[in-house]
Amino acid sequence: MEKIHATTIIAIRHNGQVAIGGDGQATMGNYVAKSNVKKIRKLQEGKILTGFAGSTADAFTLLERFEEKLNSYGGNMKRAAIELAKDWRMDRYLRKLEAMLIAVNKEDLLLLSGTGDVIEPDHDVCAIGSGSMYAQSAALALKKHAPHLTAEEMVRESLTIAADICIYTNHNLVIEKL
């Protein structure tokens, strides 16, 4: 049986604003299994926004573990991410997860990679999933050439451009902002 995967998630911090969004497509092999999946979650009473990509069960496992770490470290997102990465490298089960997670709050934008790394991306733009490079390219161009747009507008336009190009990304967008 083929795994369900494929998505586009992008987060942008711009002019004191934070937004994250994702499309709704879940792909199984070469067909759309579901078109309205919600891959964006609010944590810590809405203070932290997350988006996930990869194998669905693995992504939920990663998200649950991240939330546990957030609760253990009083909502300190960066510390929780680092502690999760440590666990990821040492735990045989976690090392097999095929998922990635973006976490963003007012201060930080982090990518938790499938290899147990915690990355703070350049330019306050982070994207994961099948259409990530399309969305990220669009976001970087918008930040440079349309700085008057809000973070939410940039996320929406970046995802729209990705959906127009990437067969694994659709126009059923979910966008959250802080």
From TrEMBL:
GO BP annotations, alphabetical order: proteolysis involved in protein catabolic process
Pfam families: Proteasome
Record's GO cellular component terms: HslUV protease complex; proteasome core complex
Complex formation: A double ring-shaped homohexamer of HslV is capped on each side by a ring-shaped HslU homohexamer. The assembly of the HslU/HslV complex is dependent on binding of ATP.
Function of the molecule: Protease subunit of a proteasome-like degradation complex believed to be a general protein degrading machinery.
Family: Belongs to the peptidase T1B family. HslV subfamily.
Active site: 7
Regulation: Allosterically activated by HslU binding.
Official protein name in the record: ATP-dependent protease subunit HslV
Record's catalysed reaction(s): ATP-dependent cleavage of peptide bonds with broad specificity
EC number(s) stated in the UniProt entry for this protein: 3.4.25.2
Major localization class: cytoplasm
Keywords: Allosteric enzyme, Cytoplasm, Hydrolase, Metal-binding, Protease, Sodium, Threonine protease
Gene Ontology molecular function: any one: threonine-type endopeptidase activity
Positions contributing to Na(+) binding: 163, 166, 169
Organism of this sequence: Pseudochryseolinea flava
